[in-house]
Structure formats: C-alpha cells, structure tokens
C-alpha cells in the first residue's frame, strides 16, 4: 500500500501557518495602535466564502499590504494543487509554489512548505489514488462531540452504545404488523 496524504490535514497546516502570521502581525500592529487584525481569525479561515458586510471588510484587509494577506494568498494558491490533472503537473505546480513560498519572508509558511516538500511523494500519490479520509474525520468529530456532551462514561460499553446509537444510522421506526382493513 501507498501512503496518501489527506488534503484536510494539508489545509489544517496551511491554516495554522496563516493564523501564526496573523497573530505575529497583529502584535506588531497593536504596538502602533492599529487594531485592523483584531477579531479577523475566522475571516482568514473562510476567505472567499465570507458574505455580506464581512466580505467588504475582508476585501479591505486584502487591499492592504499585510503579511497575513500574502500568507492567505499562498494558502489559497495551494488549493489548485489538488485540481491538477495528473501527478506530473501537480509536481510542477508544487515546485513553483514551494519556490515562491521559500523566497517569501513568511517563516510559518516556509516551515509548512518544507514539511510538504519532505512528504511530496505522499501528496503526489493522491493523483494515483484520489482518496480522502473525510468520512472518517467526520465520524471522529461526531464521536468527540458525543464524548464531550456525556462528560465521561463510567463504562466503555455505555460509550460504545451511545456511538452506535448516534452514528450507526439505525432504523428506529417501530415495525408493527399491518392491521387488517374491514
């Protein structure tokens, strides 16, 4: 079997790097009395999906010469990696993206780019085996929320039963015999 690195985890690393750039830049801007990055974490996570008044605020942030905007642009550019038609073109795309990021002065993004470079084979395997573990991640998320809601179980059997009940897609409709019509 081949290792295929999941786009969800790559995205997570890139989002964390953008947020690190945002936090560092926010600290520097606050020293100058500029609060423009205050409460913007989720704007950078949602990006192009932002709607309404937040979309205008996000566009204004992008128009400024912010390091966070540059980091966000690198993260968004990487999304194109997954839509390359084959592994060869994906490798070329990655090399160009990697070289551009490495030349930037954004250390958190450079760190992710180096990490992705060291796992490039697993990333490129996606093009031979376009699989993802999104369903598994969804189940894990649901199970964690069940665990948190229960505040701990005294017995594993109870925990298991709750997971099967909420995640097992059980048919709970009663199966009653049909009554004869008169």
Q: How would you describe this structure in keywords?
A:
single chain; 182 residues; 2 domains; mainly alpha
* Rg calc: 23 Å
Q: Helix fraction?
A: 55-70%
Averaged pLDDT: 88
- Sheet-strand content, in percent, reads under 5%
> What does the main sheet amount to?
none
Number of beta strands: 0
Order of helices and strands: HHHHHHHHH
Our count of domains comes out at 2
Quote the distance from N terminus to C terminus. 63 Å
Q: Strand pairing plus helix content: what structural class?
A: mainly alpha
Any overview of this molecule?
The protein has 182 residues and is an all-alpha fold. It has helices spanning 7-31, 41-46, 53-63, 67-78, 87-103, 107-118, 120-124, 134-150, 156-167.
What's the short story on this structure?
The chain is mainly alpha-helical and 182 residues long. It is built from nine helices and no strands.
Helix and strand arrangement:
Blueprint lengths: L6 H25 L9 H6 L6 H11 L3 H12 L8 H17 L3 H12 L1 H5 L9 H17 L5 H12 L15
């Amino acid at each position: 079997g081949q290792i295929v690195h999941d786009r969800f985890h790559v995205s997570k690393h890139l989002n964390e790097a953008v947020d690190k750039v945002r936090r560092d830049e926010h600290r520097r801007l606050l020293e100058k009395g500029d609060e423009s990055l205050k409460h913007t974490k989720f704007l950078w996570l949602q990006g192009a999906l932002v709607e309404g008044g937040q979309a205008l605020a996000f566009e204004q942030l992008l128009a400024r010469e912010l390091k966070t905007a540059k980091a966000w642009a690198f993260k968004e550019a990487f999304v194109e990696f997954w839509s390359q038609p084959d592994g060869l073109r994906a490798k070329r795309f990655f090399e160009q993206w990697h070289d551009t990021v490495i030349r930037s002065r954004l250390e958190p993004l450079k760190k992710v780019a180096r990490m992705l470079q060291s796992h490039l084979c697993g990333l490129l395997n996606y093009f031979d085996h376009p699989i993802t573990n999104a369903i598994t991640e969804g189940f894990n998320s649901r199970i964690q929320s069940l665990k948190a809601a229960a505040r701990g179980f005294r017995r594993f059997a109870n925990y298991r039963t709750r997971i099967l009940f909420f995640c097992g897609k059980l048919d709970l409709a009663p199966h009653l015999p049909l009554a004869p019509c008169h």
